[in-house]
Design brief:
Radius of gyration: 18 Å
Structural class: mainly alpha
Oligomer: single chain
Distance between the termini: 37 Å
Strand content: under 5%
């Protein structure tokens, strides 16, 4: 995610972070379903309208880094060095995202998500959106000549790799194992 440079942008980013931090603390302390939007706004000392100007829904408060993750995945495609293969670039980014999401202290958040149908559904829609953005980035790369179907399939594999590795007992090993399969699929679709 890009770092805000102007005073106004920094202030907006700080308010967004404050709201997200307060919401997560309240959700973990009291339970996701027991906390309302008004509770979060009051605790963060912002108006409900301010909260909604930063987050489109209560579920979005839990996934505050959603946009940054999506951007990181597409940037892994766009910012590759000339002639750098796609799959290793995506593997690096997914490994970094998995490490972030399996860091110490993340388990209670994932447990909360697993317990909430609304959060599981939001995460699924978020993953599909990430896959579509990633597929568009792959399809737009001039050095990656594959059909739209191949781009969408590989993108979904990458997004699923993130989710599967995050849940694995050994996340780094899981990333490597899954990406060997993704690389094989990518190579199998190489134009003749």
């Amino acid at each position: 995610m890009t770092v805000p440079t102007g005073r106004r942008e920094r202030k907006k980013a700080a308010t967004r972070k404050k709201i997200a931090d307060v919401a997560l603390r309240l959700f973990l302390d009291r339970g996701y379903d027991a906390v309302g939007i008004r509770d979060v706004a009051a605790e963060a000392d912002v108006a409900v309208t301010t909260l909604f100007s930063h987050f489109g829904s209560k579920e979005a408060l839990v996934f505050a880094q959603d946009e940054g993750f999506e951007q990181r995945l597409t940037q892994a495609v766009v910012d590759r060095a000339p002639r750098e293969p796609l799959i290793p670039a995506l593997r690096r980014e997914v490994r970094a995202l998995v490490r972030h999401c399996t860091a110490e202290g993340a388990a209670p958040v994932w447990h909360m998500i697993e317990e909430s149908r609304a959060l599981r559904e939001y995460e699924e829609s978020m993953r599909l959106r990430h896959a579509e953005s990633l597929a568009a980035a792959i399809a737009a790369a001039p050095d990656l000549t594959r059909t739209v179907t191949v781009c969408r399939t590989i993108a979904r594999f990458v997004i699923d790799a993130y989710a599967l590795a995050r849940e694995a007992a050994e996340p780094d090993a899981a990333v490597d194992e899954i990406f060997r399969m993704i690389e094989a699929a990518w190579e199998a679709t190489r134009p003749a």
